[in-house]
Amino acid sequence: MTQTTMSTAPAPEPEQPGGPGALRPLELARWGWRQLTSMRTALILLFLLTLGAVPGSLVPQTGVDPVRVAQFKQQHPGLTPWYDRLSLYDVYSAPWFAAIYLLLFVSLAGCVIPRARAHGRAMRARPPAVPRNLHRLPASETWTTDRAAPDVIAAARAMLRSRHFRVEISGEGLPVIAVSAEKGYLRETGNLLFHVSLLLLLVAVAIGNLFGFKASVLVVEGGTFSNTVTAYDSFEHGAAFDESRLAPFTITLQDLFVRYQATGDQRGAPREFRAKLAFSSSPDAPTRRYDLQVNHPLVVDGTKVFLLGNGYAPVFTVRDGTGGVVSSGPVPFLPRDRNFGSTGVVKAQGAQPQQLGFEGLFLPSAALSTTRGPVSVFPDLTFPRAVLNAWRGDLGLDTGTPQSIYRLDKRRLTQVAVTGKPLAQALAPGQTMTLPAGQGSITFDGVRRWASLKVARNPGTTPALGSAALALTGLMLSLFVRRRRVWVRAGPDGAGRTLVEVAGLSRLESESSDWLAAEVGEIAAGVRVAAVRVAAPREDED
Amino acid sequence: MSSHSLAQLSNNLLYSAMVVYAAAMYCYAADLAFSARSRPSKTPPDPTPKLVPVPVPVPVGVAVPAGPPERWDERGDRRGEQDAGRPARSDRVGRIAVSLTGLAFVVHAGSVLARGLSAGRPPWGNMFEFSSTGALAVTGVFLVLLARRQDVRYLGVFVILPVLLTLGLAVTVLYTESAQLVPALKSVWLLIHVTAAIIASGIFTIGFSQTICYLVQERRERVPIGERTPSFMDRLPPAATLDRAAYRMHAFAFPLWTFAVIAGAIWAENAWGRYWGWDPKETWAFITWMVYACYLHARATAGWRGRKASYVAMLGYATFLFNYLVVNFVLVGFHTYAGTR
Ligand code: HEM
Questions:
Q1: Chain A contact present for B177, CB below 8 A
Q2: Could you read off the pLDDT of A216-265 as tens digits, one per residue?
Q3: CB contact under 8 A, A138 and B56
């Protein structure tokens, strides 16, 4: 039977019965390469990558939630050395994870390149010769007609071309003449495009990781920051990031508006966050305004600013034993629960005779729980209270070691007490807590809100989106385009008439061939009708 | 109508839809049971004997070596004989089942619509709504297949059962009062993302049902025809047909799922400043995607076609269920989707 290979894939790999043992180094390398780029290996690597992604969703990840990682490490001290060794807290940047996907992509490249070459050849090749037994193909039709064979074939050719087949006539001038046609090359093109786009996606991700940065900053209402490394609370950047290319913008948080669900079983759920910003893209540029919301980042010169979270910054004034103000202003407290019960500290380094520290809770809607003491019962400000206790001594700020602004280092501090009991007081706005023995006082002046902003630039985002779009296009072509061949042959039937055969063959063994039978039927019907028209004048002459 | 009474209406409609679904499922089951030996077939056996392909040695390529040629003759004699003595009753039951499915769909759609109107937004803001809308998508896909005159009525039980289970779960465990969205969920891309994910999961669900039918049928067909004990499985198409049908569903859902993942990444980029962060929800969407990619690959890999590939497809569906049920409640992530607590 005639050659009817429908594939553009490279030729079959000859089996190597001897295995690798008997081969010389070069052959061994070739053998290894063939193994790596085989479909079976690809499948195994795909499975491995899938499996490798699982632990990262079960074990807390540093990149997702560092706080939970710290908690987990505390709870599982025995596991941690092992987990660390296996990079289980950073699965997606672990060497073994990278090894799997890099191998997969090497395999992918090794698979795509020869297939692309073969496909290029197939696109230039002519549609294949006619198989001898057309009626044996999955879909075929046969009939006889009075029209001459060349007329039938001319009609068939026109018909197939109008259906965007590539056509080739064979046997011209001979009694039996045929047209071969092929269509659906986009299937393989799409498949290659899909796989190549995955490679591009990897490159885009790498670009983002190399050149991008992400930073976070907490700004209190009225506060300003500029886009410089030192202005941020945290700053991460890629290996090829260049600090001098940070866009020189400044942003002021003018006002933060927050609204919560007030009733129903979702009471307290956030409904709206809006941060009113004033920003200028460079020191000389005019100031503009922007309403920053979740899902609506501000974009300045390719750098994006996102609203991530919010909280309260109670405003305190601390006076020391001399009566002078030693600290005043808003102090960000960190929310600890859904109702924004928050914790924080106030440090008065300049207080005399001893440094003063305050530790406490801020409750936007305070209530007294019999089991848990003072708690907040709603996230918005309905009954704000600051519950504080006081410490004196050495805050430890002069030692040079960096210290959290949310915690007191109590090693050289003594808790302030009255008649042996630790001093603690719940303050309403405007109230003052006075320390005994003239050590000073703290006044709760009022409350402001803070917003946590994320500032990021990822030059890989657009390329990644582009590759993803290409991949999707390729995937759809690859899955929905059907590659098929159609042949039409006409010749004498031995009884003075012309025997016409139409047959089709598709590559898709995964699909039923109903559609192919339908298409062959349509083509056959079209050829019958068209052949009548083409042949009509000659019929008149007869 | 107030938002509260709309939500109430939505719930009542949902309970009504469940009753109609149950009736439809009962009819589908009756259709299978009563007509075990009398299959009405929409594709008549081919009259032209020359179309029955003698296994042609058609080399289909290297990446895809030719599978066994399709055995039309087998389908022909199984169905052809069965067609002869088809009683009208079973067909009537089948038609009633389809009508009931249509009715349940309309009532169910009404419930989803009322819910959306009551909350003033698309009805997939929490797990309850996601489940209800997802179940609606499954029925919708099934009705589309029926409307396209595909012979899928046999699937009725296997489609309505998961729909009912999902709705049962929704009204009991997952129920959440109608309310507005948290700010992070207010986004066009979220809408696109969830719509695509819901439709894709509807199609995957049907593909999953077909895969199970295929696996059972394939095992059954290993017994020679004469020795098989009669069963409702006789009503189902032959294994090869079921396998192809399941493949078609998966091949259709996969790009849609891909699109859903991409739309989700665009949304994440807008909301949190990174398009991919490996939070558990994203990770499992990726895992589902990879497993279905494995399935498509497996079908093109020698030695994996048929049963093994089908197991991979089932694994894909299991990962989807894991994402929907376990990840939302057990593994915490950014996607605080599970409604309240
Ligand atoms: C990043 C890893 C990969 C992913 C996510 C992936 C995904 C896919 C998907 C979804 C398909 C189905 C679409 C279609 O049928 O055209 C497919 C097909 C295919 N893939 Fe991959 N693939 C990957 C790597 C590879 C590798 C390494 C090879 C080579 C060994 C390969 C060779 C093929 C071939 C030959 C097909 C066509 C199968 C057919 O004709 O049905 N793929 N791939």
A1: yes
A2: 999 999 999 999 999 998 898 998 998 888 999 999 999 999 988 888 76
A3: yes
From B297, B299, B301, the mutation candidate for ligand 1 (largest count of ligand atoms within 8 A of CB) is B297
Interval A7-24: pLDDT, tens: 434 444 444 444 555 568
What DSSP state is assigned to residue A383? B
**A251 CB within 8 Å of a chain B CB:** no
Q: CA dihedral defined by B313, B318, B324, B329, rounded to 10 degrees?
A: -160
Contacts of A54 in chain B (CB under 8 A): 283, 287
CA distance between the termini of chain B: 29
Residues 469-508 of A with CB under 8 A from B: 469, 471-472, 475-476, 479-480, 505, 507
Shortest-distance Cα residue to atom 22 of ligand 1: A195
DSSP for residue A502: E
- A299: contact with B, CB 8 A cutoff: no
Cα–Cα distances in Å, from A77 out to A56, A72, A84? 19, 8, 11
The DSSP call for residue B187 is -
**Residue nearest (by alpha carbon) to ligand 1 atom 41:** B300
Q: Please say whether the beta carbons of A289 and A276 come within 8 A.
A: yes
Q: How many Cβ pairs within 8 Å bridge chains A and B?
A: 190
CA–CA separation, A396 and A242 (whole Å): 35
- CA–CA separation, A141 and A132 (whole Å): 14
Instruction: Tell me if B3 sits within 8 A of B178, measured CB to CB.
Output: yes
Sequence-distant (6+) residues with CB within 8 A of A174 are none
- B299 touches A: beta carbon within 8 Å: yes
| Gap between the Cα atoms of A417 and A181, Å rounded | 96
Q: Kind and range of the H or E element at A112? A: helix A95-124
Instruction: Specify the pTM.
Output: 0.82
ipTM over 0.85: no
Q: How far is A410 from chain B (nearest CA, A)?
A: 34
Alpha-carbon distance of A4 to A182, in angstroms, equals 12
**B226 secondary structure, DSSP code:** G
C-alpha A376/C-alpha A383 separation (Å) is: 9
Contact A461, A208 (CB under 8 A): yes
Centre of ligand 1 to C-alpha A214, Å, is 34
Nearest CA to ligand 1 atom 39: B300
Tell me the chain A residues in contact with residue B181 when contact means C-beta distances shorter than 8 Å. 271
The one-letter amino acid at A85 = R
Residue-level pLDDT at B305: 81
In SS3 terms, A426-475 reads as EECCCCEEECHHHCEEEEEEEEEEEEEEEEEECCCHHHHHHHHHHHHHHH
Parallel/antiparallel/unpaired status of strands A440-457 and A213-220: antiparallel
Buried b (16+ CB within 10 A) or exposed e, B52-85: ebeeeebebbbbbbbbeebebeebbebbeebeee
CA distance B331 to B323: 10
